[in-house]
Amino acid sequence: MASFTVRVELHHATDRDYETLHFAMEQRGFSRLITSDKGVVYHLPLAEYNREGNLTLDQVIESAKLAANATGRNYAVLATESVARKWYGLAEKKQLVRASWG
Three-class SS of residue 82? Predict the structure, then answer.
C-alpha cells in the first residue's frame, strides 16, 4: 500500500473555502491526520493531507484536483509518494475518553 502527502493551496481563499476543501478531500479518502509508527495520531499542517491505498500518484493528484475544483477557487496541488515520512512539531490529536456507564 502506498502513502502520499498532498498539499493543496487555494488562491485568494477564505476560511470557508478551506472548509469546503477539507470536506471534499475527506469525501475522496484524504485525511488531515497522520499516524506515527507508535500509533500516535497527529494533525497535519493546514491544507496538507494524507492518503494511503493502492493508488498511483496520477490517481491521487487527479482526486485532489477534483476536490479543489469544488471550492471554485484557483489552486495549486503538490502530491508526493513516500517510502518513509518523518515530522516534528505537529500537534497531537487528543483522543476522546468515553465514560462507561455499565
Answer: strand
